[in-house]
Amino acid sequence: MSSAAPASLKDWRKAERERLVAARMALDADQLDLWRRRIDGYLELAFPGLARCRLAFCWPIKGEYDARHFARTLRERGALTALPVVVAPKTPLIFREWHPGVSLKRGPLDIPCPVDSPQVQPDAVLLPMNGWDTQGYRLGYGAGFFDRTLAALAKRPVVIGVSYELARLDTIHPQPWDIPMDYVVTERGVYRRDPEGLAYLGEPQAGTPSALASPVCYADEVKRD
Question: How many domains does the chain have?
């Protein structure tokens, strides 16, 4: 936990969130698509076990990494995909199965979520980040849904944060309730969270055994602090 948080952490995070979202939304569609394809490739090479997972991902908003393309690839290989659903303010999220054809409704922030499909306990989560820091902590939208959800799950999924290098911060001034990512993937490559912070693993290469070749969708196969 940071001991040097700004006088008003809430205000500081709000200002940083607005700055980073604006910078992301200023990118043109071609740039975002290039980075999306690059991130898709890194995820596919570095985390082959996701094709055998129950994977939760988020519907993209405001220029976030669009995981729908990668989710389709995983479904074609046998994965089950799910989206988060807000049940009530200040309560954990639930996850419901989603694939094309499942009915959606508009939830908070106008984000689509499944209406009545089966509830899913995810093995892994692809989690977009407005900002991220050198310790693997995420700057979200301020409601605390994902931290609350991860803390409440009986078996925590592997959490892979996805973002862009422009969103990197020295620190988000993490507090006791903030939960770090297990991995971070950007257009630069893959990072893994170690006790000292994020370790950069580089760009996964086709034909080269992945440092993450074990099926990361099984949470007990991942070493945690």
Answer: 1
